[in-house]
Amino acid sequence: MSTSRTADHLNFAYWVPNVSGGLVTSTVDQRTDWGIDYNRTLAQHAEQVGFEYALTQVRYLGSYSAEYQHESVSFSLALLEATEKLNVIAAVHPGLWQPGVLANLGSTASELYDGRLAFNIVSGWLRDEFHALGEPWLDHDERYRRSAEFLQVLRNIWTTSPTEFAGDFYRIRNYTLKPQPKKVPQLFQGGSSTAARFNGGNYADWYFTNGGSIEDLEEQIAEVRQHADAAGREVKIGVNAFVILDDSQEKAEERLREIVINADTKAVKSFKKAVHHAGAVTNDQKGMWTNSSLEDLVQYNDGFKTGLIGTRDHINAQIEKLRSIGVDLVLCGFLHVDEEVQEFGEKIITPLREQEANGTAADGSAQGAAAEGANADASAESTPTLSHV
User: Fold this and answer.
1) Percent of the chain at pLDDT above 90?
2) How far apart are alpha carbons 289 and 117 in whole angstroms?
3) With 0-12 CB in 10 A as exposed, 13-18 as middle and 19+ as buried, what is 258?
4) What's the confidence (pLDDT) of residue 22?
5) Which residues in the chain belong to E strands, given as ranges?
6) Rounded to whole angstroms, how far apart are CA atoms 23 and 271?
7) What parts of the chain have a pLDDT lower than 70?
8) 176: phi > 0 → left, psi -120 to 50 → alpha, else beta; which?
9) Which pLDDT value is given to residue 264?
10) Residue 48's pLDDT is what?
């Protein structure tokens, strides 16, 4: 196995708006809705235009401009009921879920929805949530050790019989799940830290990271795949990105400037203070948000950094760069969610699928040539950065 590879098929996901407030903490208009009717329709539209995945957020307290929230797992089941092919990833917190209970739920949901429910294991960044619910708040690396055990317990219950597990956080004694799932739910490890990279490579199907530059992402991906190689397994890579698609680079970057200029600075600073305890306290300074500026955090998973902001040619070229460094899935955030999900599907995903069907996307050299052409056509364009605002 090699730590360097290019995905033949690049998947796309969108952020489910199951919490209020939108995906940017700004007073600019965001045409979105956290209600179930809007989200059912959105899921159907996303499926129709080629999105394969949707990620449902997890919040237990109002925070960071999201005052209201729907629980992630139950909301995900409703979206699965409304769709036929879409995979829905429910974010869950170890420490607030018991893994054996979640394994049972996941097994039943797999049977009901043909294996389309997945789980994103997020170790937690908001200390107040754990305190409010009477659960201890662990140090960063301890939270990720707990997540490592959580991932192992889930997979063991789904695939071994009986299950025995003796860890520091979970102990499973001679437990058998009947029936075990015919399709084992996919497991995502969320995070960017050294501990998250270890978990992703060793225990998860997917490593899910914040947005970042090509160079930063390439370094993370290499480390995750080194862990996977050492463990004799494969892992896929998902990356967050905020999308602003416009007919000129200047218009797209102006929309970005407008978002940042109108940021809710008080809420962003509050979030920055909270996540310092979640990521920046890691010993090697590789935690999530460690190198995030206040402007970056206006989109709370560093989505601006990934560079999907500009014309169709610019975004296509940037997507090809992501594919070339080993990204398998791009998680897209939008300002006006339903209408922009449909636009992205029609203008970006559909042509890409046509290329794949013709063999160009699967052929590394041909796809690379296409990316070079897109770059040449957009020679006056550059990947937008927040230094512009």
Assistant:
1) 67
2) 28
3) middle
4) 85
5) 11-16, 53-56, 87-92, 117-121, 163-166, 171-175, 187-190, 206-209, 236-242, 244-245, 309-310, 329-333
6) 13
7) 1-4, 62-65, 264-297, 299, 360-389
8) beta
9) 65
10) 98
Question: What is the reported pLDDT for 286?
Answer: 54
Task: Classify residue 28 by its DSSP letter.
Answer: S
Question: Torsions phi, psi of 202, nearest 5?
Answer: -95, -30
Dmax of the chain from CA atoms? Answer: 63
Length of the chain equals 389
Exposed/middle/buried for residue 139 (C-beta within 10 Å: 0-12, 13-18, 19+): exposed
* Opening angle at CA 60, ends 57 and 66, nearest 5: 65
Q: What is the pLDDT of residue 6?
A: 80
Secondary structure, 3-state, 170-181: CEEEEECCCCCC
Euclidean distance between CA atoms 279 and 275, whole angstroms: 6
Give dist(CA 346, CA 357) in Å, integer.
Answer: 16
> Cis ω on the peptide bond leading into residue 179 (within 30° of 0)?
yes
Long-range contacts of 319-324 (CB under 8 A, 24+ apart): 319/10, 319/348, 319/352, 320/367, 320/368, 320/370, 320/371, 320/374, 321/214, 321/371, 322/10, 322/214, 322/217, 322/239, 323/6, 323/7, 323/10, 323/361, 323/367, 324/6, 324/364, 324/367, 324/368, 324/371
How many other C-beta atoms lie within 10 A of the C-beta of residue 290? Answer: 17
